[in-house]
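Weekly modeling sync, notes
Attendees: S.R. (lead), two postdocs, one rotation student

Agenda item 3: backlog of single-chain predictions. S.R. asked that every request posted to the team notebook include the full sequence so nobody has to chase files. The rotation student volunteered to paste the first one in as an example of the format we agreed on. Action items at the bottom.

Example entry:
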Amino acid sequence: MTILIGPVKVASYLDQPRMVKRYGASRIDTIAGREWAGGDLAEMISNQLVADMASLLKPSPVYPYPVTIAGAKGRRAAIDILRFEGSEDKTATIEARWFLFDLQDKSIIKVQSSLFHVPLADGSYETLATALSQGLALLSREIAETAISSKEVNRAENPRTKE
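Predicted structure, as returned to the notebook:
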């Protein structure tokens, strides 16, 4: 089963080169001097999701979208990152809405909202970056498990289907 990841979109407040920290319910600030190592945040997130899912779904191939693979059977996950930030209570928060599509007929298999809070060991920005990465790993696992279980559901509905 082939898996495509993308497009990955980030909320407009995240679409800039600096890390973001939330203070209370209504105040968000960028962190001066703390820029994302990979430059474009959406591309960086996409690359990590592809790497995480490739590791989880071996030997199934996982590619960044858009890739055209003629006749490929599998899934595509489109992901909207709604929150990707630290907070003053030493928590990294990752919130995403994602859609799982069938590659062949383009039908929507699942629409899901996910929210992960990863505690920070300390207040350093390196720890925040690590915790956000751990949150993406949790999101990858959730999407991978759904892709696998949707494959099993399709086989149960049509025992002649071979992927």
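Discussion: group reviewed the output briefly. The CA atoms of residues 80 and 91 lie 20 Å apart.
Action items: rotation student to repeat for the remaining queue; S.R. to check formatting next week.
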